[in-house]
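Researcher: Let's do a round of design. I'm pasting the structure tokens now; please hold your answer until I've finished.
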């Protein structure tokens, strides 16, 4: 058991018969009335964000989760298959547990979050940035650089992102997996 004084970003708790992690929180002590804590909670199963206010001193059940490093092997009809980097144990995960499966390529390292008590996978987090090769994009029009114009580019994983006009086929780019947008060209 923990109270609202123990809240911190990333803390996992059991709330409404589901597992949530604290995305952000704020202790508020108004001039009139009792103190309270505003939180934004992320559901570990669905990924939805919930805003909730707890009274100061409210007790919550804290659950233990573990982040483990895995390497992506392949995808088939059973799901996405990963291998633990230290024990070589393999695990299969369904697509809805991945935050950006379109940027996942073979051999890529990810962190899988497991519920420590039941050993069930809760989510799979890709690194914040991945480097991918552009397999197809239309050639840029010379002289059309006055505006911040973007064009569609197909990446080696099959994902399509918007890139600046100067990016050509065969170049490597860095993609932000959180916003699913182009970040920069890799040299």
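Researcher: That's everything. Go ahead.
Model: Designed sequence:
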């Amino acid at each position: 058991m923990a109270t609202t004084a123990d809240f911190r970003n990333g803390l996992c708790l059991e709330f409404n018969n589901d597992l949530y992690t604290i995305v952000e929180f704020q202790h508020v002590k108004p001039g009139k009335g009792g103190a309270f804590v505003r939180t934004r909670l992320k559901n570990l199963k669905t990924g939805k964000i919930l805003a909730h206010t707890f009274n100061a001193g409210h007790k919550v059940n804290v659950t233990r989760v573990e982040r483990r490093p895995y390497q992506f092997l392949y995808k088939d009809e059973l799901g996405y298959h990963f291998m633990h980097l230290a024990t070589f144990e393999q695990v299969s995960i369904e697509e809805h547990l991945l935050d950006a499966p379109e940027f996942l390529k073979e051999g890529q390292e990810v962190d899988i979050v497991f519920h420590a008590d039941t050993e069930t996978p809760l989510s799979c987090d890709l690194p914040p940035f991945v480097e991918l090769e552009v397999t197809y994009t239309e050639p840029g029009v010379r002289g059309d650089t006055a505006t911040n114009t973007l064009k569609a580019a197909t990446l080696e994983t099959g994902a399509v992102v918007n890139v600046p006009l100067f990016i050509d086929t065969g170049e490597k780019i860095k993609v932000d997996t959180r916003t699913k947008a182009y970040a920069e060209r890799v040299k």
